[in-house]
Amino acid sequence: MTLFSLAWKNMKGSFSNYLIYFVSMVFSMIVYYTFVSLQYSEQIQGSIMLSEFMSFMFMAASAVLLLFVAIFLLYSNSFFTRSRKREIGLYSMLGLRKKSIARMMFYENLLMGVLALVIGIVFGALISKFFSMILIKLMGTSAKVDFVPSIEAIVQTVIVFMLIILFTSFQGARLIYRFKLIELFHAEKKGEQAPLVSPIITFIGVSLLAFSYWLIVRPFPEELTGNYVVGNYGMALIALSVGTHLFFRSATVFLLMLSQKNKSRYYRGTNFIGTSQLLYRIRGNARTFSLIALLSAVTISFFGATYSGYYGNEISAKEDVPFTYTHLSGGQSFDSEIEKLINEDTAHPVQAQLDIPVLVMEGQLSFELDYLTSPIKIIAASTFNQASRALDRDVTVHLSGQQAAVVKPRLTDFRQASFEGQHLTLSESKKNSKLQLVQLVEGSVLPFDYPDFFVIVSDEWFKQLAKQTTTLTYKAYEVEDEKTTEAVSSKLATLIDGDFQVHSSFYTVYKEGKEGSAMNLFVFGFLGLVFLAATGSVIYFKQLTEAGEAKPNYEILRKIGVDNKVIRSMLHKQTRFVFGLPLLVGILHSTVVLYFISNFMSNLIGVNMVVPMLIAMVAFIGIYAGYYVLTVTTYYRIVCR
Amino acid sequence: MKVIVDAKNIKKVYGTKGNVYTAIEGIDLTVQEGQYIGIMGPSGAGKSTLLNILATIDQPTSGDVVIDGTSIVHMNEEQLSVFRREKLGFIFQDYNLLDTLTVRENILLPLALAKTKIKELERRVEEVADIFGISPILDKYPYQISGGQKQRTATSRALVAKPSLILADEPTGALDSKSATDLLESLKGLSEHNRATILMVTHDAFAASYCQKVVFIKDGKLFTELVKGKLPRKEFFNKILDVLSVLGGGASDVI
C-alpha cells in the first residue's frame, strides 16, 4: 500500500471526523471566492456611478476578509490536528517511520484542501450570483447578472488558498516531530486547571472596560486631530480587547464560583455537573469567549452604523439638496426652457416652484467662529419662509430692521448660544451695516456649498443690500415622488453645464448616496455575516468536540439514572451560558460604540439610528439563536446516541 | 427473608431474522436481601448481558424481572431512570467517574439527583467516605488519584444512596491485588454488617471467593452454582477453580 492510498483510506474511513474541518475549509473558500468575484464583476462595476470608490472598498474589505479567513482556517486546522494526536501516536507505535507519517499527514491535508477548493469554487460561483443580485437590489440599479464565473477571481482564490493549504499541510507534517510519543497519547487526558480567581485581575479587567468605554463616549475635543483619533480610539481598542479577555478569564470563574456558594441549590439536581464542566474548560473557553465578544461587537457596530447610513441616505440627501431641482437663473429663455422640461414630466407634477434671490457679500463676525464665513450668502426672510413652506417644514423666521438669523451650516454642531446677541458687519456695505444676530435656524433651502454660511435678513434690509451688489437668483422646483426623477435629472445635467452651485438635482445626490451607502452596507453586511458565521461555527465546533469528549460522562449519568429530558435541559443551560455570555458582552460593547457613532452621525446628517441599530442587533441575535438551537440539537444527538 | 431480585426465564436474543444470536437462554435467578453473589463464566457466556438486564440498561426479549417488588420489564425510559436512581447502585470495571467533578461531587451525584437536603447529603458522603477510607482525598479530582482510590470512589457512589441492589461489573478488573483485596473485603463487610445486596460479575476466581454464592453460566444457561456456607475462603477458592476447569474454554480466563 502506498502512502498516498493510506492517506486516502484514512480520509474515507473516518470522514465524519474530517467533516467539520472540511466544511469550515469549504465555507472559507466560498466566502472568499464570492467576494472576490464580486470585486471583479464588470457588470456590477459598469452599472454604478461610483466604481472607483467601490473598487477601493472592495479591496480593503477583501484584505480584511483574507486575514480573517486565514486565521479561521488555521484555527480549525489546529483544532482538527489536536483531535488526531492519538491516531498519529498509534501509527508511530505500530512502527511507521516518522518521515512516512509526516508525508502521510502532508498528502492528506493537501488532498482535502484541493478537494475543498474545487467544491468551494463551484458553490462560490453559484452563491456569488445570488450576492450580486442582492448588491444590485440594494443599490437600486437595474443591471442584469449573467452566470459567468470570473477567471481572475478563480485564479486569485486558488493562489491564496493553495498557500494556506500548503502551510497547514506543513504544519500537520511537523506534528509528529514536534511532540514526543507519550505526549501524543495523552493529548486530551489532562484536565485543565481552573484558573485562580484573582480579585485584582477581575478589578483590572472591569476597570479597563470602563476606561475604554469612557474613551469612546467622551465628547470630542475642541480641535479634532488625526493624532487624537488614532491615540484615543487606538487606546480604547486595546483597553477593550485586553479588558474583555481579563473579564472572561477571571470574572466568569468568579461568577461560576459564586453559584457554588449556595450549596443547597448547587447540589440539587444537575446544576453542579454543568457548572463543573464549564469550569473545567474555562481557560480555553475564556479565549474563545473574548474573541467572540469582540467580533460580535465589531460586527454589530459596523453593521448598525452602515445600515444607518443606508437608512438615513434619503434624509441626508434631502438635507444636501432640499429641492428636487435647483439651478442658477440663466436668462429668460434658458429658464423657461428648463421650466418646460420639468413641467412636461407629467409623472412628477410640480408641487412648488419659486425663485430664491441670494446676495453674496463679505463680512466680519463680532466673535471667533471655527468655520469659514466668507463669502456670506444672504437670503430675505420672506424667501426663506416661503421655501420652508414649500418643503413642508415648519421653521419660519420673523425679523425686522437690522435683525438677522444664521442658518446652521450643514455638517456642523453649532448652538444658538454662540450666535445670540452677536453682530455681523458686512464690509462692502456703505452705510452702517451692523446686523444683529438673534437666532440660529435649522433647514437650509439651497444645495450644500462650502462654506455653508447663509444669513437671513429682514425683507427691507435685503432690498437695501440688493442695491449694493448683484443678486443671484436660484430657480427651485419641488416635485412629487422625487426619488424616481432620473430621466429629467439626467436631461438637466446635459442641458446645464456647471457645478453643484449652478445646478443640482435631488435625484443625483440621492442616487450617489444610495449607491455609496449600499456598497458600505453590502460590504459590511457581508463581512458581518462572515464574522457571525465564523464565530457561530467556532462555538459550534468547540461544543461538538467537547460533546465527543463528554460522551462517556453522559453515558455514566444515564446509567446512574438521569433521563434524557434532564440531560437535554442540562445541555440547554450549558449552551446558553456559552453562547449568551459572549453575546451579552458583545452587545454591551457595540451599544457603547453605536452610541458614539449615533451621536457622531446624528450631528452630521441628522439620522436617527435607533431603528437601524435595533434591526442590526435583532438580526444578529436571530442568527445566533439559530446556531444555539443547532448546537444543542447536535450535542444531544452525539451524547445520547 | 426479603427477595430483592427475582428473574424468571429471561431470554435475550440479538440480531434480526436470519442472523440471530442467543445471548441468554432462559435463566432464573433469585437473590435475597443481604446476599453477596458472584456470577462467573467464560467470555461470551452472557454474564454481562445478564447484568445489563438486571441493571435495566438492556431489556430482555422475554421473561420477567422483579427487583425489590417492582417489575422492570414494562417500564418506560423515564420510570427506568427514576428506578435506577432509587434502587440500584453500580460499580464498573473502568470506574466511570466524571472527570470534571471532585471525588466528593462524584460520590454525592445520586443524592443530588434525588434532591436530597444539603445537610443530609454531606453527612452521608462523609459517612460512606469514612467506610472506604477516602476522606482525605474528597476534594481531589479523579485524574489526581490512583486506580484503587478511583474504584473506592465509584463504590462509595454506588452505596451512598443506600440502594436495594448493588451491581458490580468486574470491579477488580483494573486493580492491583492489594487494592482488589481491600475492595473485596469492604464489599464483604457491607453485605455482612449492613445487609447490602450485591451482585458481582467477575472473571477472577479470587474475587469470586469472597462471595456467599457463585453462579456459573455457560452458553446463556445456568451451568451450576456453588455455596460457600461455612467453608474457609481458600477452600471455596479451590472449589471455584475446579468448576471453572470443568466449565472449559476459560483456562485463560481464570488467571
From TrEMBL, chain A:
Q: Which UniProt keywords apply?
A: Cell membrane, Membrane, Transmembrane, Transmembrane helix, Transport
- Residues annotated as coiled-coil are none
Top-rank lineage group of the source organism: Bacteria
Q: Where does it reside?
A: Cell membrane
Q: Where in the numbering of this chain does the ABC3 transporter permease C-terminal domain appear? A: 60-178, 526-637
* Keyword check for Transport: yes
Q: Name one GO biological process term.
A: transmembrane transport
**Topological relation to the membrane, as annotated:** Multi-pass membrane protein
For this protein, the parts annotated as crossing the membrane are 18-36, 56-76, 106-127, 147-173, 194-216, 236-258, 289-310, 521-541, 577-597, 609-630
User: Is 4Fe-4S set as a keyword in this record?
Assistant: no
GO CC terms? plasma membrane
Give the UniProt family note.
Belongs to the ABC-4 integral membrane protein family.
Cited PANTHER family = ABC TRANSPORTER PERMEASE, ABC TRANSPORTER PERMEASE-RELATED-RELATED
Name of this protein: Putative ABC transport system permease protein
Organism (species): Paenibacillus catalpae
Automatic annotation (TrEMBL), chain B:
Q: Does the keyword Iron apply?
A: no
Keywords carried by this UniProt record: ATP-binding, Nucleotide-binding, Transport
* All residue ranges annotated as the ABC transporter domain in the record: 5-244
GO-annotated cellular components = membrane protein complex
Which GO terms fall under molecular function for this chain's record?
ATP binding; ATP hydrolysis activity; transmembrane transporter activity
Q: PROSITE patterns from the xrefs?
A: ABC_TRANSPORTER_2
Do you know which InterPro entries this protein is assigned to?
A: AAA+_ATPase, ABC_transporter-like_ATP-bd, MacB-like_ATP-bd, P-loop_NTPase
Report the Gene3D superfamilies cross-referenced here: P-loop containing nucleotide triphosphate hydrolases
Signal peptide bounds: none
Q: What's one Pfam family here? A: ABC_tran
Provide the family line. Answer: Belongs to the ABC transporter superfamily.
Q: What is this protein called?
A: Putative ABC transport system ATP-binding protein
